[in-house]
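User: Structure please.
Assistant: Input sequence and predicted structure:
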Amino acid sequence: MSIQTIEVTDTITSSFTSVSDSAITVISLCNHTTVTQTASIYLVPAGTPIGEVGNKNIFIKDLEIIPDDTFIVYQGSEKIILENDDQVYLVASANGMLPGESSVTAIISYIGV
């Protein structure tokens, strides 16, 4: 099992790419600011251009996370199965932040299948 940590900004960004087939076991989103932030997660099939990532790929949209709180997307035996080159994109609001600064930290835990 491996983990990947991501500083999520207000620009939608590919934050995880599956190498071979993999299963995401946990995604956590932590608001490390003093104001409420939102975060969105997109699950994107391999080969999808960034300009085409949108509502058809939305997994969680505009989740409100209160200050200094963490939201856990998966627990227990639930998993997201990804094929080679499938991607997870993340974006967060920037309330009270300078453009490009991170308001949310994500941790993705995954394992090869």
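The first strand starts at residue 2 and ends at 8.
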